[in-house]
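Appendix B, record 7
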Amino acid sequence: MNGQTRRRAAALLEVLGVSLAGPLLIWGLRRLMGVSVTNPLDSLSVHTTDAELITASRHMFVLLMFQYAGYFLLIFPINWWYRRRGPSSYGLTRAGRSWTALLLAGLGTAALSAWPAVSIELMNVIHVTNVIRPLGETAPWRQAFFDMSWRRWEFWLFSAIFSWALIPVLEELFFRGYCQRRLAEDWGDGPAIIGTACLFTFAHTQYLIPNAYSAGMIVSLLTLAIGFGVVFAWTRSLIPSITAHAIINLPMTPTWQSVLLVAFVIVAMFAWRRGAAALKQIFATASVAACVGLALVGAGYAIAAARLDSLTILAAAMVVFAVVLEAMDRRRNRIVSEVSTPA
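Structure tokens (predicted):
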């Protein structure tokens, strides 16, 4: 195994392993601490009361904090030990750009990549008025979320945690800030964007239902994830992708979805040239084989993880093997450095 192959294998094994070993680690820590965390989505219904939504908000916040803590308890020490990666490497920086430029980049990304998702959601809502046939059912908790009353602050508290405020930060930090960045170090930006986009898309198991709505959402989510990845690779900051992610996750009525779609069309008319230039530059030297390979691995692994509980044990082994390969690479680099240093 040559140096490049070893580094690529280590990056892929690390990312895939952490995505499942992280939750396994936090599950073990919760057991040791005697902490029980319930998933509020299991009991969410259209009749959920205000008090129950407040409780659900608290449980969801704790659940998400534990989930992502599991990831980063592995990520931070491994990445610091291997290549001394600090906060800016995860996109926690403005990368020398102004807030205005980054926020506009996020708006442009949403306009160019989120319109398919908004269109699908709008089409699936219109069926309520019998204008068109339903595109298909969705997960019960998701249907309950959209069917319950929105005219209460408790709903917006829950949705802020679960949908448009906290989730965009956590998901972008993990998928773009860690997964994409770690793969890009050894695979290049193009394959890393595609591989991470597939892992991100198929990790949304609520869309793994065989119907037209879910198929449309999978394609739309993949388009959106590629947009997030491109703007992160272009700016090296998570601010634009978090902004775009928050916009698309904000609950909206059909009227506001229509307004947003029109706004996207207008913004896209001004932003498409710069978006096309960024896309062309990032994928100019990308290997098609590497892009296809990481796409298949990312999608297949996410689907298998949703169906095979035993995969978490394999994921832990993958992390260990990745660290072994990284240790070999560190040792080789140290020897090369010592040999090349003059006496």
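Remarks on this record: Confidence is low (pLDDT under 50) at residues 128-132. The chain has one domain: 3-340.
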